[in-house]
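REQUEST ID: PR-0412
SUBMITTED BY: lab tech R.K.
PRIORITY: routine
TASK: structure prediction, single protein chain
INPUT:
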Amino acid sequence: MARVAAKYISAGDLEKFSYCPLSWWLSAEFDGESEGLAEGVKGHEKLGKSLWKIEATEKTARESERLVLWWAIIATAIGIIGLELLRAAPELSEVLGVVALIWILAALYFLYKASRSTIHSKTVDYERIILVFAIVATAVAVSSVAFAIPADTKLALTFEAVAILWLIGASLFLYRTLKSTTIVDSLRKEFRVEGKIEYIDMDSAKAFRSNNFGLSGRPDYIIKLGEKLIPVEEKTGRTPKGPLYSHIIQVTAYCVLIEEAYGSPPPYGIVKYPEHEFEIEYNEDQKRMLLGKLAEMRKAARAGEVHRNHDRPGKCRFCSRREVCPEKLA
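STATUS: complete
OUTPUT:
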């Protein structure tokens, strides 16, 4: 019986069809009963939650770093005011003001570099440089004012006590930053995640759609490396010697979707197995192969008849629809 041709073919269905057309045909009716697929769904949920934790923890670390910066600057300013209240030297005020201006300009330069950087680690480095320059600039600027203020020992001690409290606060935020960074590093190592996470396939995530090709899909996640967005597909189960053809088709579909959505083609996509990962090059040949498979799939849906596309018992053995397949191999 023919199926009604859907406006959009999903990358997941395309992967099933590429693995075996009959397996794809049976999936609509029997996928809900497969224990293997249920395990795959659980693994996907675990991955999604871990990726969200990476993103949320990195956000916490960035916020804490900013708080460390501001608390350290304020503590420095208060501490210097306290010290300078113990003495007076108005003649140094103008010189220190000029020096402070130079350091502030340097801090602004690195702030500009941080805003232009697309690499997270570089951005963090620039932010740390900004912190150093900002503290020095604040110290010099405060000194230029404080040298002109008459000495006051009691007030100076009060300022020093307040400065210590602010430094304690900065230290707490620094601890929070280091703790968050440790968690992120551990999760990234466990799930072999590089780059900035731009998209995660969770319930609230949007599906990508190509009106030009009638294709839709939601990669497990997308990372940003430099200026390029790279789709990543995670696979559970055994690790093959090389990427499976059906997985190559699926990742290529994600590359097509990203190219249409953002106007720039990814140089490659990634398929990750438990023990290894492979980069799937994206080019015009891969795109033509994908479009050919889409046309073949639509033709099969209209005809309403599909069959096993291989004579490999091992392939049947690993198929999640094996128990209900009328053409399975022994």
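NOTES: The mean pLDDT is 75.
REVIEWED BY: pending
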